[in-house]
Amino acid sequence: MSFTSAAFILFAVLTLLIYYTVPKRGQWIVLLISSFLFYLSAGGWYLPFILVTILSTWLCALGIRRRDRLDEDYLAAHKADMTKEERKAFKNNAKKKKRPYLVGGLVFNFAILGVLKYTGFVLSGVNDLLAIFGSKGVTVPSLILPLGISYYIFRSTAYLIDVYWGKTEAEGNIAKYALFISFFPAVLQGPISRHKDLAPQFFTPHNAEWSNLSEGGLRVLWGFFKKVVIADTAMIAVKAIVASPDTMTGMYVLLLIILYSAVIYGDFTGGIDVTIGLARMMGLRLAENFDHPFASRSTQEYWNRWHITMGSYFTDYVFNPLSISAPMKKLSKWSKDKLGRGVGMRLPVYLATLITWFLTGLWHGASWNFIVWGLLNGAVILISRELSPLYAKFHKKFPSLKDRAAYGGFCAVRTFFLMGTIRILDCYRDVPVTFMAFGSVFYDFASWGDLAGGKLLQSLGLELWQCIAIALGTLVVFLVSHRSKTRPVLTEISERPWLFACSCAVLILVILIFGCYGIGFDAGDFIYQTQF
Q1: Among 260, 354, 445, 479, which one is most buried in terms of CB atoms within 10 A?
Q2: Distance, CA of 443 to CA of 421 (rounded, Å)
Q3: pTM for the whole thing?
Q4: Shortest CA distance to 381 belongs to which of 306, 301, 324, 308?
Q5: CB 370 within 8 Å of CB 361
Q6: How far is CA 396 from the centre of its chain?
Q7: 376-385 burial, b for 16+ CB within 10 Å, e for fewer?
Q8: pLDDT tens digits for 98-137?
């Protein structure tokens, strides 16, 4: 059931009506039933996989809780008779006893994700190697990939790790835990909420408050506007450019960088707006996933603002544990002794960074273009970190420059094109083709003649009014985003009934006329709902 379909809109409306009609103690049950019905609508074979993940992580978390309570009771009874060293040894031993529950849950669930998502990629690589030696390749099986598997496995494993670390309490009711994992607005594309932040909200009574319904509903419409008016329309031109990498070069590649940035921003933030808006209508507040990323002055800042919950997952559960792990400590000691203190301090951090970004790229897709995309992002961040002393010297020499709006704009544009350039690996899906296409920007100047010759729109497959719709839509999004830095514009609008009604009417009208619901268009799924 696509978020852009009329069936989903009807489903969401019916869920809201029932949610606010039943007794408040049963509201979470309505959400649980709706979540499983929604997921079941995607395909009957998908349901067993999410159920297995729910059951396995729930049982492992209960195992951790049981061990914790046994050890706490023993320590409380014998603490007075134990020395400080004995208590420390007991706690270390207690940690080892509960570790199998954590490792078992993680290995089991990531194995499911690995087999279903990466088997084809691995076997295709094996076949390529065998072909070099003239050997016959192995058969690549066709495996199903349950919708949202990357998100619900990340959400469940984060919960399991947090229980192990003592950051959240293990949920004893499997039905309540199942709701946290399967909550239908967020199951397919995030945000990757933490259990301690989201789960308690499900079991708190919620009234049908106008502030939640109005602001949430307006945000849903805003999300659809970004998706179907900007992203889906711009995607027509993106597909046209990508389909002709040999002829649409130079200027077209620069256009691709700009257009695909509009596509991925409008599509992904639009989907998150629908998710957060619908949850808000239920009285729930999900974690924000974007914070004006195109205003970022650096790559590091950009990734602190883009897909925030994914970034925090990889930071908290991959980078931080990896960088302080025993092997990394040994590597740091060895490199300090053999290569010098400077290298010894950098090497573990840089290796952990590249591994984290390698896994981030692999999470985005089982193909080389995503792996290269991830490693390039990591490399740019590390290079920027190495150049930070030079940046400091530059700003020391020109102290007033940093505070100037023009310089801030320059840095934001620079970061935009740098991130956009790396992102076109997602478009061509072929690493050599991507690099050749980008290289054409610096030597194919004949393509700029299409701007004056009137061939541009024909090549992109767009009508003039569609280009105007993309441009005006992007301008509106920019103005609203810029104004929302101080206070969300959607909040201000929802607080004024007449302005709210007019805004909703205009958004609906624009979506129906200029969006992909118009004549000759087909509303597509959100990108992050179909890839993960």
Answers
A1: 260
A2: 16
A3: 0.90
A4: 301
A5: yes
A6: 37
A7: bbbbbbbeeb
A8: 999 999 999 999 999 999 999 998 888 888 888 888 788 7
